């Protein structure tokens, strides 16, 4: 009955909105993979239902660049963008600029989303945004090549992955000099923070900063994790991996030039597209574990928030509710492998047919490791930049793991000293 009420309530909002004077709202969409295409399509469906118009603001691919642009718009109290697409780690940083949706959206509608993601979007009791899709890091691999080289299953540890990648790489390079073993996000940006957090946690090295705000990165296991990753560069990963974002890694893997790839779920649908050279040859597994640890996947995902500077807040809220609702989340899951934030959709047969691994890897998504944005609040961006820069130095041979985590610990303590 509660689900029915929520759906009826949303339908009523859309219907009421369609009877009011039509307005134009601007929606900031990402452009990684199929993001922009699916965002436009969803906005068009809402516009058709309501009689309003949606103008799309195309955001930069890299999360750091997107955040910088958003901060400029919000600091200027600009009304140019009504609805923002927000990373899961941004609510604490940007909460003051967004409408509290807690009193604007029925509780039953909010409660259909994963509790942990709703909590991540709640700052001091304020619901900053509605969850749109969730993410967690995954290991993609070439099923045909694992079989060709005598492997029956995906690697369970990073050491196994490196050994398998080297064997496959050496064999494939006899006929394809461009082939490499493993591609991932090594550029110094938020994507590297996500990758490196997975390495550190999987080695039992903690989460950089714990839930109480204590800096924990300066330990031997964290150092070992960074040194292990550095050993892949110019060995089973190309030298250029330290400049790769999501799309650079996907481009190499999808063109048939890599055995393994770390990426987000969106890469599945694209890899199975008609233009993909590896269609039907892709497997997906949890990321490997390190010595003394267990597999870890960084929690990602995006939400939709309404700017307090919007001149069309009610209409913008209607758009957010529609896009974050089950109908749109199902479409996005089937067409673009965007993980729903509504748990019941993981039992939807159409979604599972399009994304077979959603069911088997559900625990990866529900137990993903959060970046320390909660305890660091408004200082998270500084913490993340310090972390990714320290990791980048190790990957590029400028530092060893032990020295890097020791220096990083001092830098983070300094940031903490200014309050978080």
Automatic annotation (TrEMBL):
Signal peptide span:
1-21
Name of this protein: ABC transporter substrate-binding protein
Q: Among its keywords, does the record have RNA-binding?
A: no
Report the sequence similarity comment from the record: Belongs to the bacterial solute-binding protein 1 family.
The record ties this protein, via Pfam families, to: SBP_bac_1
For the keyword Heme, the answer is no
> Which UniProt key words apply to this protein?
Signal, Transport
